[in-house]
Amino acid sequence: MDKIKILIAEDSITQAMQLQNMLEVNGYDAAIAANGREALRSIGASRPSIVISDIVMPEMDGFELCRNIKADEELRSTPVILLTSLSDPQDVIRAVQCGADQFVTKPYDEKHLLTTVGHLLHDKDMHDREKSQKGFHIFYRDEKFLITSHRRQILNLLLSTYETAMSKNIDLLRARDELKSLNDDLEEMVNKRTAALHIEIAERKSAEAALRAKNEELNTVLQQLWQAAKLATVGELASSIAHELNNPLAIVSLRIESLTAQTSQDDPRRRELEIIGQEIERMGNLVTNLLQFSRRSRQQISTVDIREEIEKTFELIEYHFRKNNVKVIREFAPDVPSIHADRQQLRQLFLNLFTNAGDAMPKGGTLAIRVMARPEAKQVYIEIADTGVGIPPEILPKAMDAFFTTKPEGKGTGLGLAICRRIAEEHQGTFEIVSEGIPGKGTRVCIALPFSNGSNARSIKSE
What we know:
The protein is of the alpha/beta class. It has 11 helices and 15 strands. The strands form 4 sheets. It has a 5-stranded parallel sheet with strand order 2-1-3-4-5, sandwiched between helices. The protein has a 5-stranded mixed sheet with strand order 9-11-12-14-13. The protein has a 3-stranded antiparallel sheet with strand order 10-8-15. Strand 1, helix 1 (13-25) and strand 2 form a beta-alpha-beta unit.
Protein backbone atom coordinates (compact mmCIF):
# COMPACT_ATOMS: atom_id res chain seq x y z
CA MET A 1 0.00 0.00 0.00
CA ASP A 2 1.39 3.38 -1.03
CA LYS A 3 2.08 5.86 1.73
CA ILE A 4 0.14 9.11 1.86
CA LYS A 5 2.23 11.96 0.53
CA ILE A 6 2.59 15.20 2.49
CA LEU A 7 4.50 18.26 1.29
CA ILE A 8 6.21 20.47 3.88
CA ALA A 9 6.89 24.12 2.90
CA GLU A 10 9.35 25.47 5.48
CA ASP A 11 12.39 27.72 5.06
CA SER A 12 13.95 26.56 8.37
CA ILE A 13 15.73 23.31 7.52
CA THR A 14 15.86 22.31 11.19
CA GLN A 15 12.09 22.69 11.74
CA ALA A 16 11.38 21.11 8.31
CA MET A 17 13.42 18.00 9.10
CA GLN A 18 11.92 17.71 12.55
CA LEU A 19 8.40 17.79 11.08
CA GLN A 20 9.40 15.38 8.27
CA ASN A 21 10.80 12.88 10.78
CA MET A 22 7.64 13.06 12.90
CA LEU A 23 5.38 12.42 9.87
CA GLU A 24 7.49 9.57 8.52
CA VAL A 25 7.59 7.88 11.92
CA ASN A 26 3.78 7.94 11.82
CA GLY A 27 3.61 6.30 8.37
CA TYR A 28 3.52 9.27 5.96
CA ASP A 29 5.75 10.04 3.00
CA ALA A 30 6.95 13.60 3.66
CA ALA A 31 8.84 15.84 1.25
CA ILE A 32 10.35 19.30 1.93
CA ALA A 33 10.24 22.54 -0.08
CA ALA A 34 12.36 25.52 1.04
CA ASN A 35 9.75 28.21 0.13
CA GLY A 36 6.32 28.76 -1.37
CA ARG A 37 7.47 28.98 -5.00
CA GLU A 38 9.41 25.71 -4.77
CA ALA A 39 6.45 24.08 -3.01
CA LEU A 40 4.05 25.17 -5.81
CA ARG A 41 6.28 23.53 -8.44
CA SER A 42 6.58 20.37 -6.36
CA ILE A 43 2.80 20.08 -5.85
CA GLY A 44 2.18 19.94 -9.59
CA ALA A 45 4.64 17.08 -9.97
CA SER A 46 4.10 15.00 -6.82
CA ARG A 47 0.41 15.64 -6.15
CA PRO A 48 0.59 15.39 -2.31
CA SER A 49 -2.51 14.59 -0.28
CA ILE A 50 -1.85 17.49 2.14
CA VAL A 51 0.36 20.56 2.19
CA ILE A 52 1.74 21.78 5.50
CA SER A 53 3.19 25.25 5.07
CA ASP A 54 4.90 27.86 7.19
CA ILE A 55 3.54 31.38 6.62
CA VAL A 56 6.65 33.55 6.80
CA MET A 57 8.95 32.41 3.95
CA PRO A 58 11.10 34.10 1.29
CA GLU A 59 9.97 34.54 -2.36
CA MET A 60 6.40 33.35 -1.62
CA ASP A 61 4.79 33.22 1.83
CA GLY A 62 2.30 30.65 3.05
CA PHE A 63 -0.77 32.79 2.35
CA GLU A 64 0.27 33.27 -1.29
CA LEU A 65 1.07 29.57 -1.68
CA CYS A 66 -2.35 28.61 -0.30
CA ARG A 67 -4.09 31.15 -2.56
CA ASN A 68 -2.35 29.73 -5.63
CA ILE A 69 -3.25 26.16 -4.68
CA LYS A 70 -6.92 27.05 -4.15
CA ALA A 71 -7.01 29.04 -7.41
CA ASP A 72 -5.88 26.01 -9.44
CA GLU A 73 -8.82 23.80 -10.55
CA GLU A 74 -6.73 20.66 -10.31
CA LEU A 75 -5.09 21.46 -6.98
CA ARG A 76 -7.80 23.27 -5.01
CA SER A 77 -9.02 20.08 -3.35
CA THR A 78 -5.62 19.62 -1.70
CA PRO A 79 -5.98 20.49 2.00
CA VAL A 80 -3.57 23.17 3.27
CA ILE A 81 -2.44 23.50 6.90
CA LEU A 82 -0.79 26.78 7.78
CA LEU A 83 1.82 26.77 10.56
CA THR A 84 2.67 30.09 12.18
CA SER A 85 3.90 31.74 15.35
CA LEU A 86 1.71 34.77 14.53
CA SER A 87 -1.26 35.38 16.82
CA ASP A 88 -3.01 38.45 15.35
CA PRO A 89 -6.72 37.84 14.51
CA GLN A 90 -6.02 39.36 11.08
CA ASP A 91 -3.78 36.38 10.34
CA VAL A 92 -6.73 34.07 10.94
CA ILE A 93 -8.91 36.12 8.56
CA ARG A 94 -6.19 36.07 5.89
CA ALA A 95 -5.92 32.29 6.34
CA VAL A 96 -9.69 31.99 5.74
CA GLN A 97 -9.51 34.39 2.80
CA CYS A 98 -6.79 32.41 1.03
CA GLY A 99 -8.74 29.18 1.54
CA ALA A 100 -6.61 27.46 4.20
CA ASP A 101 -8.16 24.34 5.68
CA GLN A 102 -6.46 24.46 9.09
CA PHE A 103 -4.44 26.95 11.08
CA VAL A 104 -1.95 25.57 13.66
CA THR A 105 0.10 27.82 15.93
CA LYS A 106 3.76 27.17 16.61
CA PRO A 107 5.10 25.56 18.64
CA TYR A 108 2.59 22.85 17.83
CA ASP A 109 1.69 19.74 19.74
CA GLU A 110 2.63 16.70 17.60
CA LYS A 111 -0.43 14.74 18.61
CA HIS A 112 -2.69 17.66 17.74
CA LEU A 113 -1.03 18.12 14.36
CA LEU A 114 -1.34 14.42 13.48
CA THR A 115 -5.02 14.48 14.48
CA THR A 116 -5.57 17.53 12.27
CA VAL A 117 -3.91 15.74 9.33
CA GLY A 118 -6.12 12.70 9.88
CA HIS A 119 -9.30 14.78 9.94
CA LEU A 120 -8.40 16.61 6.75
CA LEU A 121 -7.67 13.35 4.92
CA HIS A 122 -11.03 12.04 6.07
CA ASP A 123 -12.84 15.22 4.92
CA LYS A 124 -11.13 15.05 1.55
CA ASP A 125 -12.65 11.68 0.90
CA MET A 126 -16.16 12.76 1.79
CA HIS A 127 -18.41 13.30 -1.20
CA ASP A 128 -20.74 15.74 0.54
CA ARG A 129 -18.13 18.46 0.81
CA GLU A 130 -19.91 21.79 0.38
CA LYS A 131 -18.97 23.92 -2.64
CA SER A 132 -18.28 27.58 -2.38
CA GLN A 133 -20.24 29.74 -4.82
CA LYS A 134 -19.66 33.39 -5.09
CA GLY A 135 -18.19 33.82 -1.62
CA PHE A 136 -18.79 36.73 0.75
CA HIS A 137 -17.01 39.75 2.19
CA ILE A 138 -16.00 40.45 5.81
CA PHE A 139 -14.55 43.66 7.22
CA TYR A 140 -11.84 43.85 9.88
CA ARG A 141 -9.79 46.89 10.89
CA ASP A 142 -11.07 48.95 7.96
CA GLU A 143 -10.09 46.23 5.47
CA LYS A 144 -12.39 44.14 3.26
CA PHE A 145 -11.70 40.43 2.78
CA LEU A 146 -13.39 38.14 0.16
CA ILE A 147 -14.04 34.71 1.66
CA THR A 148 -14.51 31.88 -0.90
CA SER A 149 -13.74 28.95 1.44
CA HIS A 150 -16.27 26.22 2.07
CA ARG A 151 -18.22 26.39 5.27
CA ARG A 152 -16.52 23.27 6.60
CA GLN A 153 -13.15 24.83 5.86
CA ILE A 154 -14.11 27.92 7.79
CA LEU A 155 -15.49 25.89 10.65
CA ASN A 156 -12.37 23.71 10.79
CA LEU A 157 -10.17 26.77 10.70
CA LEU A 158 -12.11 28.47 13.47
CA LEU A 159 -12.12 25.29 15.53
CA SER A 160 -8.42 24.97 14.98
CA THR A 161 -7.93 28.55 16.14
CA TYR A 162 -10.19 27.90 19.12
CA GLU A 163 -8.25 24.78 20.05
CA THR A 164 -5.05 26.71 19.75
CA ALA A 165 -6.43 29.44 22.01
CA MET A 166 -7.62 26.82 24.52
CA SER A 167 -4.21 25.19 24.42
CA LYS A 168 -2.62 28.58 25.02
CA ASN A 169 -4.98 29.17 27.94
CA ILE A 170 -4.05 25.80 29.41
CA ASP A 171 -0.39 26.61 28.93
CA LEU A 172 -0.92 30.00 30.54
CA LEU A 173 -2.76 28.42 33.48
CA ARG A 174 0.00 25.86 33.87
CA ALA A 175 2.60 28.61 33.65
CA ARG A 176 0.65 30.65 36.19
CA ASP A 177 0.55 27.69 38.61
CA GLU A 178 4.25 27.04 38.08
CA LEU A 179 5.00 30.72 38.60
CA LYS A 180 2.92 30.74 41.80
CA SER A 181 4.75 27.64 43.01
CA LEU A 182 8.07 29.28 42.20
CA ASN A 183 6.97 32.47 43.96
CA ASP A 184 5.94 30.45 47.02
CA ASP A 185 9.28 28.62 47.00
CA LEU A 186 11.12 31.90 46.55
CA GLU A 187 9.14 33.53 49.36
CA GLU A 188 9.92 30.59 51.63
CA MET A 189 13.60 30.83 50.72
CA VAL A 190 13.57 34.59 51.36
CA ASN A 191 11.83 34.07 54.72
CA LYS A 192 14.34 31.41 55.73
CA ARG A 193 17.24 33.57 54.60
CA THR A 194 15.77 36.60 56.38
CA ALA A 195 15.39 34.55 59.57
CA ALA A 196 18.96 33.31 59.16
CA LEU A 197 20.13 36.90 58.65
CA HIS A 198 18.31 37.98 61.81
CA ILE A 199 20.06 35.19 63.70
CA GLU A 200 23.41 36.12 62.13
CA ILE A 201 22.88 39.79 63.00
CA ALA A 202 21.89 38.90 66.58
CA GLU A 203 24.91 36.61 66.91
CA ARG A 204 27.18 39.28 65.43
CA LYS A 205 25.79 41.91 67.83
CA SER A 206 26.25 39.47 70.72
CA ALA A 207 29.82 38.78 69.60
CA GLU A 208 30.50 42.51 69.26
CA ALA A 209 29.08 43.13 72.74
CA ALA A 210 31.22 40.31 74.14
CA LEU A 211 34.25 41.73 72.34
CA ARG A 212 33.55 45.19 73.74
CA ALA A 213 33.18 43.70 77.22
CA LYS A 214 36.48 41.84 76.80
CA ASN A 215 38.17 45.00 75.56
CA GLU A 216 36.83 46.94 78.53
CA GLU A 217 37.98 44.13 80.84
CA LEU A 218 41.41 44.19 79.20
CA ASN A 219 41.60 47.97 79.54
CA THR A 220 40.64 47.65 83.20
CA VAL A 221 43.34 45.03 83.76
CA LEU A 222 45.89 47.21 81.96
CA GLN A 223 44.87 50.18 84.11
CA GLN A 224 45.23 48.02 87.22
CA LEU A 225 48.65 46.83 86.08
CA TRP A 226 49.68 50.40 85.41
CA GLN A 227 48.33 51.48 88.79
CA ALA A 228 50.11 48.56 90.46
CA ALA A 229 53.36 49.55 88.78
CA LYS A 230 52.90 53.14 89.94
CA LEU A 231 52.08 52.01 93.47
CA ALA A 232 55.13 49.74 93.55
CA THR A 233 57.31 52.68 92.54
CA VAL A 234 55.59 54.99 95.03
CA GLY A 235 55.87 52.32 97.71
CA GLU A 236 59.61 51.95 97.22
CA LEU A 237 60.02 55.71 97.23
CA ALA A 238 57.80 56.11 100.30
CA SER A 239 59.68 53.39 102.18
CA SER A 240 63.00 55.05 101.41
CA ILE A 241 61.73 58.49 102.44
CA ALA A 242 60.07 57.12 105.59
CA HIS A 243 63.26 55.45 106.76
CA GLU A 244 65.22 58.62 106.09
CA LEU A 245 62.66 60.70 108.05
CA ASN A 246 62.22 58.35 110.99
CA ASN A 247 65.50 59.08 112.78
CA PRO A 248 65.39 62.90 112.43
CA LEU A 249 61.75 62.91 113.52
CA ALA A 250 62.57 60.81 116.57
CA ILE A 251 65.36 63.20 117.57
CA VAL A 252 63.19 66.28 117.02
CA SER A 253 60.33 64.67 118.96
CA LEU A 254 62.57 63.93 121.94
CA ARG A 255 63.97 67.47 121.89
CA ILE A 256 60.47 68.98 121.79
CA GLU A 257 59.36 66.77 124.70
CA SER A 258 62.41 67.87 126.66
CA LEU A 259 61.87 71.55 125.92
CA THR A 260 58.17 71.28 126.78
CA ALA A 261 59.00 69.64 130.12
CA GLN A 262 61.44 72.42 130.93
CA THR A 263 58.86 75.12 130.13
CA SER A 264 56.40 76.24 132.79
CA GLN A 265 52.67 76.10 132.24
CA ASP A 266 52.50 79.91 132.17
CA ASP A 267 55.20 80.33 129.56
CA PRO A 268 53.63 81.53 126.25
CA ARG A 269 56.17 79.44 124.33
CA ARG A 270 54.79 76.23 125.84
CA ARG A 271 51.68 76.41 123.61
CA GLU A 272 53.87 76.83 120.53
CA LEU A 273 56.00 73.84 121.58
CA GLU A 274 52.86 71.74 122.05
CA ILE A 275 51.67 72.67 118.52
CA ILE A 276 55.08 71.72 117.13
CA GLY A 277 54.88 68.42 119.04
CA GLN A 278 51.44 67.67 117.58
CA GLU A 279 52.66 68.29 114.05
CA ILE A 280 55.71 66.09 114.63
CA GLU A 281 53.38 63.36 115.93
CA ARG A 282 51.23 63.72 112.81
CA MET A 283 54.32 63.42 110.64
CA GLY A 284 55.34 60.35 112.58
CA ASN A 285 51.93 58.77 111.95
CA LEU A 286 52.24 59.53 108.25
CA VAL A 287 55.68 57.88 108.15
CA THR A 288 54.30 54.84 109.99
CA ASN A 289 51.41 54.57 107.51
CA LEU A 290 53.80 54.87 104.59
CA LEU A 291 55.95 52.09 105.98
CA GLN A 292 52.92 49.91 106.68
CA PHE A 293 51.62 50.44 103.11
CA SER A 294 54.90 49.94 101.29
CA ARG A 295 56.74 47.19 103.14
CA ARG A 296 56.07 43.48 102.80
CA SER A 297 56.28 42.57 106.46
CA ARG A 298 55.85 39.17 108.07
CA GLN A 299 52.45 38.60 109.63
CA GLN A 300 52.18 37.15 113.13
CA ILE A 301 49.26 34.76 112.63
CA SER A 302 47.28 33.39 115.56
CA THR A 303 43.75 32.16 116.27
CA VAL A 304 41.59 35.23 116.76
CA ASP A 305 38.08 35.92 117.96
CA ILE A 306 37.00 38.74 115.66
CA ARG A 307 34.47 40.13 118.15
CA GLU A 308 37.16 40.45 120.84
CA GLU A 309 39.50 42.35 118.49
CA ILE A 310 36.69 44.73 117.51
CA GLU A 311 35.94 45.47 121.20
CA LYS A 312 39.60 46.06 122.06
CA THR A 313 40.02 48.37 119.07
CA PHE A 314 36.81 50.23 119.88
CA GLU A 315 38.11 51.05 123.37
CA LEU A 316 40.75 53.28 121.74
CA ILE A 317 38.16 55.52 120.04
CA GLU A 318 35.10 55.14 122.26
CA TYR A 319 35.69 58.52 123.96
CA HIS A 320 35.73 60.28 120.58
CA PHE A 321 32.33 58.76 119.68
CA ARG A 322 30.77 59.73 123.01
CA LYS A 323 32.04 63.29 122.67
CA ASN A 324 30.58 63.63 119.16
CA ASN A 325 27.24 62.08 120.18
CA VAL A 326 27.62 58.97 118.02
CA LYS A 327 25.41 56.06 119.05
CA VAL A 328 27.04 52.64 118.66
CA ILE A 329 24.99 49.50 117.95
CA ARG A 330 26.63 46.08 118.26
CA GLU A 331 25.03 43.08 116.59
CA PHE A 332 27.32 40.13 117.27
CA ALA A 333 26.05 36.62 116.46
CA PRO A 334 26.75 34.15 119.31
CA ASP A 335 28.21 31.38 117.15
CA VAL A 336 30.98 33.11 115.22
CA PRO A 337 33.98 30.82 114.56
CA SER A 338 37.50 32.01 115.13
CA ILE A 339 39.83 33.00 112.29
CA HIS A 340 43.57 32.93 111.68
CA ALA A 341 44.84 36.49 111.49
CA ASP A 342 47.44 39.05 112.57
CA ARG A 343 45.93 40.80 115.58
CA GLN A 344 47.79 44.05 115.07
CA GLN A 345 46.79 44.32 111.44
CA LEU A 346 43.14 43.59 112.29
CA ARG A 347 43.17 46.28 114.93
CA GLN A 348 44.72 48.74 112.48
CA LEU A 349 41.98 47.85 109.93
CA PHE A 350 39.15 48.39 112.44
CA LEU A 351 40.72 51.56 113.87
CA ASN A 352 40.96 53.10 110.38
CA LEU A 353 37.32 52.25 109.66
CA PHE A 354 36.06 53.54 113.01
CA THR A 355 38.04 56.77 112.55
CA ASN A 356 36.60 57.31 109.06
CA ALA A 357 33.08 56.67 110.34
CA GLY A 358 33.55 59.20 113.15
CA ASP A 359 34.90 61.80 110.70
CA ALA A 360 31.82 61.27 108.49
CA MET A 361 29.48 62.07 111.44
CA PRO A 362 30.90 65.28 113.02
CA LYS A 363 27.45 66.24 114.33
CA GLY A 364 26.51 62.81 115.62
CA GLY A 365 24.82 59.78 114.15
CA THR A 366 24.72 56.01 114.45
CA LEU A 367 27.47 53.45 113.96
CA ALA A 368 26.33 49.84 113.51
CA ILE A 369 28.84 46.99 113.89
CA ARG A 370 27.61 43.56 112.78
CA VAL A 371 29.45 40.25 112.98
CA MET A 372 28.01 36.94 111.81
CA ALA A 373 29.05 33.60 110.36
CA ARG A 374 28.45 32.44 106.79
CA PRO A 375 28.82 28.64 107.04
CA GLU A 376 28.07 28.06 103.34
CA ALA A 377 31.06 30.25 102.40
CA LYS A 378 33.12 29.30 105.48
CA GLN A 379 33.58 33.01 106.23
CA VAL A 380 33.13 35.47 109.06
CA TYR A 381 31.21 38.50 107.80
CA ILE A 382 31.85 41.95 109.34
CA GLU A 383 29.80 45.03 108.47
CA ILE A 384 30.54 48.55 109.70
CA ALA A 385 27.83 51.07 108.71
CA ASP A 386 27.51 54.76 109.58
CA THR A 387 24.84 57.39 108.93
CA GLY A 388 27.26 60.05 107.78
CA VAL A 389 27.51 62.08 104.58
CA GLY A 390 28.36 59.04 102.40
CA ILE A 391 30.69 58.84 99.40
CA PRO A 392 29.51 60.34 96.08
CA PRO A 393 29.16 57.76 93.25
CA GLU A 394 31.80 59.47 91.10
CA ILE A 395 34.33 59.23 93.94
CA LEU A 396 33.49 55.73 95.20
CA PRO A 397 35.60 53.84 92.59
CA LYS A 398 38.69 55.84 93.70
CA ALA A 399 38.05 55.59 97.46
CA MET A 400 40.50 52.71 97.97
CA ASP A 401 43.24 54.14 95.72
CA ALA A 402 46.44 54.96 97.57
CA PHE A 403 46.92 58.66 98.39
CA PHE A 404 43.36 59.54 97.38
CA THR A 405 41.49 61.56 100.00
CA THR A 406 38.61 64.02 100.20
CA LYS A 407 39.59 65.29 103.62
CA PRO A 408 41.06 68.80 104.06
CA GLU A 409 44.81 69.19 103.69
CA GLY A 410 46.59 67.96 106.78
CA LYS A 411 43.63 65.83 107.93
CA GLY A 412 44.21 62.65 105.93
CA THR A 413 47.00 60.74 104.20
CA GLY A 414 44.86 58.92 101.61
CA LEU A 415 46.29 55.57 102.74
CA GLY A 416 43.73 54.41 105.32
CA LEU A 417 41.29 52.52 103.06
CA ALA A 418 44.10 51.26 100.79
CA ILE A 419 45.78 49.71 103.85
CA CYS A 420 42.44 48.25 105.01
CA ARG A 421 41.86 46.54 101.67
CA ARG A 422 45.43 45.19 101.60
CA ILE A 423 45.06 43.74 105.12
CA ALA A 424 41.78 42.01 104.18
CA GLU A 425 43.22 40.60 100.95
CA GLU A 426 46.42 39.42 102.68
CA HIS A 427 44.13 37.38 104.96
CA GLN A 428 42.48 35.81 101.85
CA GLY A 429 39.37 37.88 102.49
CA THR A 430 37.33 40.49 100.64
CA PHE A 431 36.83 44.20 101.26
CA GLU A 432 33.90 46.19 99.80
CA ILE A 433 32.55 49.72 100.24
CA VAL A 434 28.87 50.47 99.56
CA SER A 435 27.56 54.06 99.50
CA GLU A 436 24.92 56.05 97.62
CA GLY A 437 26.49 59.39 98.45
CA ILE A 438 23.29 60.56 100.20
CA PRO A 439 23.71 62.34 103.56
CA GLY A 440 22.07 60.34 106.32
CA LYS A 441 22.32 57.03 104.48
CA GLY A 442 26.06 57.01 105.03
CA THR A 443 28.55 54.32 104.05
CA ARG A 444 28.67 50.57 104.62
CA VAL A 445 31.96 48.63 104.67
CA CYS A 446 31.70 44.84 104.23
CA ILE A 447 34.57 42.49 105.10
CA ALA A 448 34.62 38.71 104.75
CA LEU A 449 37.45 36.63 106.28
CA PRO A 450 37.86 32.84 106.09
CA PHE A 451 37.23 30.52 109.07
CA SER A 452 40.18 29.19 111.02
CA ASN A 453 41.25 25.69 109.88
CA GLY A 454 42.18 24.68 113.42
CA SER A 455 45.95 24.83 112.94
CA ASN A 456 48.33 26.30 115.51
CA ALA A 457 49.47 29.90 115.37
CA ARG A 458 52.17 30.41 112.81
CA SER A 459 54.06 33.14 110.94
CA ILE A 460 53.56 33.43 107.14
CA LYS A 461 54.90 35.76 104.47
CA SER A 462 52.17 38.05 103.11
CA GLU A 463 51.68 38.13 99.35
